[in-house]
C-alpha cells in the first residue's frame, strides 16, 4: 500500500505510478554505463542499484537540463558522484552538457591529487601528533556542526571542488565552440564516500535528504541554499562589483542580476558557470561546499533542478520517492508529478525542464522495511483513502514536519557563511531563503521557464556577441 502521493490519478484517471511502470520497460530499467576516468562507471540516464535518474523537456525547443552519475568515482568502489545541471540562455543546453561531461573528470583528478598530497604528508610526518593541524582547521567557530575529522575532510573536499569549478569556468571562457557569453548553467552535486556526504552547490538547483524522525516519520532535510540574487550576502557582492540586483514590476518577487549600463541579461541566480557578460559584475562560479555525516536514519538524497522545486515542496518530493513501488521509478515519478503540478497550479505558464537524481543510501530490503514501519507509525489507511481525491498541493497537510518551522536540526549541511555566530544556529538569512521557495508561487502571468529577463536591448547584446566569433572577445569578458 503506497502513500497518497504515489496513488494520485494522472491525466484521464490513470494512476501516475501505473503509467510510469507501463513505460518503464521501454525506457530501460538500468541505464547504459560507459567507462570514465579511473575506471568509473558513468550513467547519463536510467537506474542502477542505488540510483534513479530522469529528465523531461518542458515546453521549449531543447531540454536544457542535464545530469550524470559516476559510480566508483576516482576508482574507489565506495565513492559515488551525482550531478544535476540546469542550463539557461540561448546556448544553455550546450553549456549544461559540456559541464556534465567535463566537470566530474576535473573533480576526480583534483581529488586524486589531493589524496596523493595527503599520503605524502603523512609519510613525511609519520604518526606524530596532528592536534595543531586540527586546531587550525577548527578555528572558524561557524563550523560547530563538524567534529575534528570531518573538518579536515571538509577542508580537503572544499579545496578540490573550488579548484575544479574554477578550472571548469576558465575552460568555458576559452572554448570558442560554445557561446557562453549570455548562456550558462547551475550545478548541484554530491559525493558519497562511505558515511560521508559532501555537497557542492552553484545556483538555484537543490539537494535534499530524506531522514527519519524520532517517531520514524519522514523528515526532509534541505542540504543546499538556493543561491538567488536577493540573498543579502550575494546581493552585496554583486553590488560591490557594480552589478545591479533588481526585480521587474511584472514579477516583483523575482530578483535578477543586470549589467551596470545594459538592461540585460536579468539572470535569476547569483552563481553559475558561463554567463561571462556578468563575471565582472559579481556573478561567480565558486560553489558553496558543505558536509554531512550520514547515519542509519538517513534514507536517500534527491537532486533536482528548479523545474521541480518551483512546484513541489521538499516534503512532497520525499513522499513521492519514499513510496515508489520500485526504486528505478522514483526519479521519473517526481518529474511526472512536477509536470502535473505545473499544469494544475500555473496553467498560464510554460512547464519548465525537469531533471532528478535519487541516490538511495540503503539496500532495498532495509529501505522497504524502514518505510513499512514508518507507514504504521505516521500514516493510517483512512488518510491514504482520503488523499486519493485531493490535489498534489495538499499533500503537505499530511506532513509531520511543518515546512514553516525549519530549524538547524532539519538543515544540517548549511554552508558556513549562512550560519549564526552562535554554535548550532542558522542565520536569519538562511532561514528566510531556505523557506522562501516553499511558500512563494510564480504568478500566472510570469514565464518561470526563463532564467534571464526579456528586454529588447538583450537582442542587441546577443547579436553583437553572435557576430563576433573571435575567441579574444570571450576572454575580454
3D architecture notes:
- It is a single chain.
- Helix 2 packs across helix 4 and helix 7 packs across helix 8.
- Strand 7 and strand 8 form a beta hairpin.
- The longest helix has 34 residues.
- The protein is built from 13 helices and 20 strands.
- It has a single domain, classed as PPM-type phosphatase domain (Phosphatase 2c, domain 1).
- The protein is globular and about 55 Å long.
Which helices and strands appear, and what pairs or packs with what?
Layout: E1 9-10, E2 14-15, H1 16-27, E3 33-35, E4 41-43, E5 46-47, E6 51-56, E7 65-71, E8 79-88, H2 92-125, H3 131-137, H4 148-174, E9 184-185, E10 187-193, E11 196-202, E12 206-212, E13 218-222, H5 232-240, E14 244-247, E15 255-258, E16 265-267, E17 273-274, E18 288-293, E19 300-304, H6 306-309, H7 314-322, H8 330-345, E20 354-360, H9 364-378, H10 381-387, H11 428-439, H12 456-467, H13 471-476
Antiparallel strand pairs: 1-2, 3-4, 4-7, 5-6, 6-20, 7-8, 8-9, 8-10, 9-17, 10-11, 11-18, 12-13, 12-19, 14-15, 15-16, 19-20
Please name the defining characteristics of this protein.
alpha+beta, Phosphatase 2c, domain 1, 9-stranded antiparallel beta sheet, 6-stranded antiparallel beta sheet, PPM-type phosphatase domain-containing protein
